[in-house]
Amino acid sequence: MDLKKLARSLHKYERRVLPELEHSKYVEEIARATGLKDVEVVRALQWLENKGAIVVHTEQREIVHLDSNGEKYAKGELPERIFLRTLKDGPIPVKKLAQKTGLDRDEVNVCIGLLREKGAILLLKEKELAVKITDKGKRLLESELPEEQFLKKAFPVDVRALSPKEKEVLKKLRKRKGFVRIEVLSVKRAELTDVGKELLKLGVRDEDLVDRITPQVLASGSWKGKEFRRYDVTSKVPEINGGKLQPYRAFLDRVRQKFLSLGFEEMTGPIVETDFWDMDALFMPQFHSARDIHDAYYVKEPKEGKVDQNFLKKVRAVHENGGSTKSKGWGYSFDVKRTRRLLLRTQGTACSARKLASPDLKVPGKYFGITRNFRHDVIDATHLPDFNQTEGIVVGEDLNFRHLIGLLRIFAKEFANTESIRLVPGYFPYTEPSVELYAKHPDLGWIELGGAGMFRPEVVEPLVGRHLSVCAWGLGIDRLAMFNLGFKDIRDLFSADLAFLRKSPVM
């Protein structure tokens, strides 16, 4: 370490504080000696410690303050003095002490206990219990009581500055109600290191160094003949936590922009959805176990929503007998009341169904959505009951399953940053053929990202009114975010821990 360079880099506060450390150790002492403010001294000590010139210790210090009764008796007289003075003329019955002394019952009882302990009074048991002053009590009355001496001190008082006798008095006063209170403060004590001692030998002092080059300094020439302070660019500086988007929120925005840049249009839908759009329009039988994976949260009030009668009629026919799709349907009696039930949306595919039924549907067309969904689920590192999906459809006249596979490979590469994927045959009531997409996470292994398939005619024709090819997918965007952000626990995506969020990258 080049001590000369270090000495030239000291701030003016450091140059004023360092020499004083040979005599003073505590912040308040240094502040009095240097004329600096406490905050300026603390700042100088932090800088000097960073440079290895000092070591700062934190100590606990007890400070005594007068409480309400202490302030009252410091201005007037202690109850025990009034008590003894009243007894000078002779014994007084205990039951008349409050009246004679002008003290309240609590003060009388305290005085009896304290003065008996000091041998200043005696209790007489004759016809009635009385109190008599002793010779020692008379001597105490003629002199200043230790408690009176203590109350005359300039408060607040540091306990370390008290003599052993004063500490005994303090111990007794603390037992009395409202006399004193103790405040525990953390104080800093600085100690010179070998580096600090060597800097002092170099003659570090509060000299007139030039710290700043301003237009005025240059114009006046006041810099001539003076030494310039050397700046240390390696010094620690306060950490600045600038504002930034929440990492997951920023990821969702990037996904949206990628889809838009690929020519997709965004589609939306309500979070509180009807059974009709969430499941029935997707050819999911009303009383079939296929709905078990959609363990929905149903709304208590209101229980039912409105459904367009034209679409309801066509979807009902498809469920019961296949309608005009050449399908046999599910062969059961469709429950019109059940289809109006309100629930929290279980899948983003409900938005795809609404888009197919929309008069704004374009053919060919590409649509995506980023939707919030709800299902009963056990919370763990990869599952939440409140989750997000990105889903979409590509609509055309002659699309096939190979087009869908190509889309899924693009999505895995673009959104999960991986080319290690698996396509596993799957089952969804509204697609045929169907697949499940898996991608390999570096820490968690193979993770299911979602499902995909070609929409069945039973889904498309009742909503569109004619035959179309529709590639459809629904991916767990929460898990996609884990790939991109390097998270190992899906719950971290929604963390409110500021320290964690500040360290999380915004890619």
As a percent range, the share of helical residues equals 25-40%
Roughly how many Å is the radius of gyration?
42 Å
Instruction: Note the total helix count.
Output: 22
Going by helix content, strand content and strand pairing, the class is alpha+beta
Largest sheet: 7 strands, mixed
In CATH's first tier, which class of the domain at 249-270 and 346-503 applies? Alpha Beta
Classify the fold: give the CATH topology of the domain at 249-270 and 346-503: BirA Bifunctional Protein, domain 2
Strands side by side in the biggest sheet: 7-10-11-15-14-13-12
| CATH architecture field of the domain at 249-270 and 346-503 | 2-Layer Sandwich
In whole angstroms, the N-to-C terminal distance is 40 Å
| C-alpha geometry | elongated
Superfamily at the CATH H level of the domain at 249-270 and 346-503?
A: Bira Bifunctional Protein, Domain 2
Number of strands: 15
Short summary:
This protein has 507 residues and is α+β, with helices and mostly antiparallel strands.
Can you put this structure into words, describing what you see?
With 507 residues, the chain is an alpha+beta fold. It contains 22 helices and 15 strands. The strands form 4 sheets. The chain has a 7-stranded mixed β-sheet, sandwiched between helices. A 3-stranded antiparallel β-sheet has the order 5-1-6. It has a 3-stranded antiparallel β-sheet with strand order 2-4-3. It has helices spanning 3-8, 12-20, 27-34, 38-50, 68-75, 79-87, 97-101, 105-117, 135-142, 146-151, 164-174, 194-201, 215-220, 247-261, 275-278, 309-321, 336-339, 349-356, 401-416, 457-464, 477-485, 498-503; strands at residues 54-66, 92-93, 121-125, 129-133, 157-158, 180-192, 265-266, 272-274, 342-344, 365-374, 386-396, 421-425, 431-441, 445-455, 469-476.
